[in-house]
Amino acid sequence: MIEIQQEFLKCMRCGNCQAVCPIYKETKMEAEVARGKIQLIKGVTEGVLKPTEYLAEKIATCLTCLACQENCPSGVNYEKILLYGRDYLAKENGLPPVKKAIFKVLRKPRLFNFGLKMASRFQGLAMKKVKGRSGRKLRFGLLEDHENRLLPEFSKETLVEKARSKQTSGKEKLLYFPGCMINNVYVNVGEAVIDVLKHNGAQVVVPEKQSCCGTPARVHGDIESAKSLGRYVIDTYLATDADYVITSCSTCGVTLRQGYVELFTDEPEYLEKAKKLAEKTRDINEYLVEKGFIRPKKLNLKVTYHDPCHLNRKLKVNKQPREILKAVLGGNFREMKKPATCCGGAGSFSLTHYPLSKAIGRKKALDIIETGAEVVATSCPGCMLQLNDALAKQGSNIRVFHVAELLAEGYKEK
Amino acid sequence: MEALAKLEKILGSAKIKTQTEELFVYGYDATAGLKNQMPLAVVFPESTEEVVEIVKWANEYKIPLYPRGSGTNLSGGTIPAAKGVVVELNRLNKILEIDLDNLTATVEPGVIINDLNEAVKPYGLIYPPDPGTVTTATMGGSVAECSGGLRGLKYGVTKHYIMGIEAVIGTGELLKFGGKTVKNVTGYDLPALMVGSEGTLGIITKIIVKLIPAPVAKKSFLAVFNSIDDAGNAIAEIIKNRVIPATLEIMDQTTIRTVEKFKNIGLPVNAQAILLVESDGYPEQVEMEAKIIRQVLEKNRGEVSEAKNDEEREKLWEARRAALPALAQVSPTTVLEDATVPRSQVPAMLKKLKEISEKYNLIIGTFGHAGDGNLHPTILTDETNREEWQRVEKAVEEIFKAALELGGTLSGEHGIGMAKNRFLLWEMGEAGVNLLKRLKLAFDPNNILNPGKMA
């Protein structure tokens, strides 16, 4: 509590966060920019404000892109305050029933995986394929704007299933943590990651015991679910003698590298393990550049890069993907005006705040289109989903790929 | 409340907020140490006509209005002092015209200053006023507070760039002051009166500003001094030599040490002061000025380094830009003042600040626009420490007394707002303050607009 009070006091209320907040740019509401949220959280924890649903909704209206934190002259740890606030409100108000139910399922990895498997079987009933794009559209109105909205297509076979037949050998032993999205939706990204690592002489294993990394629960204030998932992941991934754990999702990467250490500060046993896992974890871009990856053949493709917020701001991985892309594309790589601005996806934010998410995504899509690129690369399946939807809405043919997919393509070129 | 229901009817429910959670965050601005004050409602007008309606409504019910932009001011200018309605103008944010023949731009009050600069950049033009909050602050707020900034010495401040203003005065009448002509002596200089009026005379709905050609060349110097007097003499002598740099900034030892601690950029922690000087304009002129600047700095025992390219210039400026952020990180509360003296008195003021810091046992880092005498003594404190806060208030009082004694002013660029009300008499005298009050009543007979500020 004292620690968080110190953090509150650090905020000078200068308002510099307004200049970089994608949400504030859309709504221009003081309660929806970091300065306002910090005051609201301070107010509710000091008892000046009541923990109303309305307040919780205000605190929920955040992409956690952390642009404000990066731009803060006083060095306020906004993320810490925000998560504290969400945790506080979840305890005071309880979570909304839908979220509670979702996290309950998330907490049981086997049940969750079974559910996703079923989703892949039955998605055709609710969703139709979209020609020429990856993703599906809803046949009927479960979600807002369903006729126009591009949703993920669940793969028939998960990455874990596919990887079974892809056993590899090599000098360095790598464990791959694909995360929910890549294991179930963007399976081709996962395969590309494995191909790329194999090509660079590593042995890659995808453990059968997969689960969500826990971040969705954590950012919504369900710390217990997040911890339960954290323990599961830590135990699974420390159970072997792998040299590194590889991630290819921005958010999962941050969770394994930093999130668990923050989460388990009061559980010494798991804190130690979390630190060990953190040391071993590398984002795929980071690993390849650190080890010196084999140069690919050049692709004749104009490509731009979108920085996933967490990868860029939390892990500071932004030069590496560009180095890889330049190796694959040479002079065909082109920067967009503001590559580090949030795409508006932000995980479940795009589900719960669709109109806002769509407006932010639109700006991103226009930036991408302006570069004249044929492909936008990124390093996060969550961003891929949002970019696909945002570009489709602009009627653009620009395709969205993970950096690893383009590198894998470069290795295939003769 | 009947009045609010009527206001909602006028504006429509999307443009008015009355939930406690929404109101709470309009109870403050960037000023440290003032009490939060929640308004009754916040309204978001989207047209001039709506602003007129709001002011008429306020007159009918005698409810005060508090115009607001981004809330970045440092004088409590936008805090709703008595129960009233905040008029948030950030949705009136269109750049209406860039007139290349007359070199003017016409904007709505909610336009962010930096956005205007980005918009005129392709034409080789700039809008020079550049307060520290240039990426956040709105044009309307900047005009109402008459913001200054780093380029004040050569280019002047907001008041030198405002040619015309459209505003709704306190009666609800929509008026136009000035226009696009360079020369205009019709009646009193009303645009000038509106600039720096802190929202007490009218709600600004349109602004015509002057644009100027962007300088094509720049040269920047950093000079390290072991005595404050040497630094002060150098400032005065540069100008005596008929050179007006674009910027002439100072950082004192406390600031240097704090910046170095947080940024590790290799600043000399034993130096008494650092000066940053930048000349801009046409290459030949810059070349000539740079020569004189270097000579003066060296003559006054300054250790000079010059930026050879943009990258090195960026490095020099990094120290200055880091000043406030670094100071802000030392303690929970940062009281940033803007005591201003004639530039010849900068060394005397710096000495006085040192005495005050020792007398009240407070850390005061001073940096600022030495070239125009606008200093930012910044007190590092913790507002929850009551005993210390009392010392801070006394020190602040003494800082302003000192500035006035040296022929200076209470505020160079932050304004009076609520924060400096209590000192107003010192500078203006009773007759002066009374005249302000009568002027206010001429514009706003029912005292609807931003009451409790500058009074």
From TrEMBL, chain A:
UniProt keyword Kinase present: no
Molecular function terms, GO-annotated: 4 iron, 4 sulfur cluster binding; glycolate dehydrogenase activity; metal ion binding
Gene3D superfamilies the UniProt entry points to: Alpha-helical ferredoxin
Any coiled-coil regions, as ranges: none
The record's free-text note on cofactor binding: Binds 2 [4Fe-4S] clusters.
Catalytic activity from the UniProt record: (R)-lactate + A = pyruvate + AH2; glycolate + A = glyoxylate + AH2
Pfam family, one: Fer4_8
Leader peptide range in chain numbering: none
Cofactor(s) this protein requires: [4Fe-4S] cluster
Annotated ranges, domain 4Fe-4S ferredoxin-type: 1-32
Record EC number: 1.1.99.14
Keywords in alphabetical order: 4Fe-4S, Electron transport, Iron, Iron-sulfur, Metal-binding, Repeat, Transport
Superkingdom as given in the UniProt entry: Bacteria
Role according to the record: Component of a complex that catalyzes the oxidation of glycolate to glyoxylate.
Annotated protein name in UniProt: Glycolate oxidase iron-sulfur subunit
Organism annotation: Carboxydothermus pertinax
From TrEMBL, chain B:
The organism's place on the tree of life at top rank: Bacteria
The entry's keywords: FAD, Flavoprotein, Oxidoreductase
Residue intervals of the FAD-binding PCMH-type domain: 35-214
PROSITE patterns: FAD_PCMH (PS51387)
InterPro entries reported in the protein's UniProt record: FAD-bd_oxidored_4_C (IPR004113), FAD-bd_PCMH (IPR016166), FAD-bd_PCMH-like_sf (IPR036318), FAD-bd_PCMH_sub2 (IPR016169), FAD-linked_Oxase-like_C (IPR016164), FAD-linked_OxidoTrans_Type4 (IPR051914), Oxid_FAD_bind_N (IPR006094), Vanillyl_alc_oxidase_C-sub2 (IPR016171)
GO MF: FAD binding; oxidoreductase activity
Protein name: FAD-binding oxidoreductase
Names of the cofactor(s): FAD
Family classification: Belongs to the FAD-binding oxidoreductase/transferase type 4 family.
